[in-house]
Amino acid sequence: xxxxxxxxxxxxxxxxxxxxxxxxxxxxxxxxxxxxxxxxxxxxxxxxxxxxxxxxxxxxxxxxxxxxxxxxxxxxxxxxxxxxxxxxxxxxxxxxxxxxxxxxxxxxxxxxxxxxxxxxxxxxxxxxxxxxxxxxxxxxxxxxxxxxxxxxxxxxxxxxxxxxxxxxxxxxxxxxxxxxxxxxxxxxxxxxxxxxxxxxxxxxxxxxxxxxxxxxxxxxxxxxxxxxxxxxxxxxxxxxxxxxxxxxxxxxxxxxxxxxxxxxxxxxxxxxxxxxxxxxxxxxxxxxxxxxxxxxxxxxxxxxxxxxxxxxxxxxxxxxxxxxxxxxxxxxxxxxxxxxxxxxxxxxxxxxxxxxxxxxxxxxxxxxxxxxxxxxxxxxxxxxxxxxxxxxxxxxxxxxxxxxxxxxxxxxxxxxxxxxxx
Length: 422
Ligand SMILES: Cc1ncc(COP(=O)(O)O)c(C=O)c1O
Description:
Blueprint lengths: L4 E5 L10 E6 L5 H10 L7 E5 H14 L3 E6 L6 H10 L2 E4 L2 H9 L7 E3 L6 H9 L4 E4 L2 H10 L4 E5 L7 E3 L13 H10 L3 E6 L4 E3 L3 H20 L5 E3 L13 H15 L6 E4 L3 H4 L3 E14 L5 E7 L8 H5 L5 E4 L7 E6 L8 E8 L7 E5 L19 E7 H8 L9
Helix pairs in contact: 2-3, 7-8, 8-9
The protein binds pyridoxal-5'-phosphate.
């Protein structure tokens, strides 16, 4: 990497000590070439997250092209690396924060409080007070007790009613935990807010994370219009619709059909409302494809099932207590790629390194036979991975290597070119 510039950068959170390094590389170097160079150095103790910042920028450009009237508020919970937040801030996105900690992080990195939605319907009093003290006025609610709490601690806030609208084609359904029923609960909540003299200015929903069902957004937006009309009758002036997250983020999973449904539903349902603003809270979309996780086989075992079938067990240096929580608990799809080529593929299981029997990344997949020290690279590993990593069983956190091309780095840091905000 002789022509590249390399910097050590430090993670801001004291409790998470992932080591990070920023590499500004020559234009035109592909992620595959970067990974190959890293593999040439041989295995190390930690897994390595290769973060391609260009990919995040590319995703933003696609979003703006596809849904110019829907401003993305990136969901920090999905991947909270400062460089992702700073990059998206420069590109002009807003941010969805779920906690005082995320608000603090965003503000410390220079995010304007008006570019934050506190999108957590169950907030602590402390976090509400923190939001108020820092000028973060926009926040969601979905129940009467939350309204009472906000009325006591931040009555001037601009409130966004989160209603429930679930897709049944998602990795992570959210509707059981959050979102009021649009028919049976929303009217009473709007009434209660009025009684407390609170301002409800927005509506939001989240159809679930990792959604394969673009049509669902359309129906949710139709439901939003019904609540909008009801809110008007109750005396609330709704000017914001937040269509949440759920958008796919893996390579080869475009958002065209999602954009098409959302754009047309907005036109159909809110085309008569000139002062309406539209936002979304994408997390996975922005970061999933930007990260490849390089693991290596640290141990191997050949087992025989009761029917006599041979199965290869590989134990790698990262697992569900590291980067793969979502693979273990939410059946999120993993995308393992190996270097070895062979026509003979064997039934294989990939285990994490800990002693926990739940620490399983993938089962019954077909791979060429691997040896100890061989690499398994997991593509599309940026969403809900590093943010969930801990040191269970004493294993180290992954190492993060960030790559950005000279041109993209220049465009982000050259004030003459400015931001790409809409
Ligand atoms: C309130 C809220 N907004 C946004 C997101 C991000 O969703 P996604 O990563 O599916 O885009 C989540 C994820 O859980 C969420 O809970």
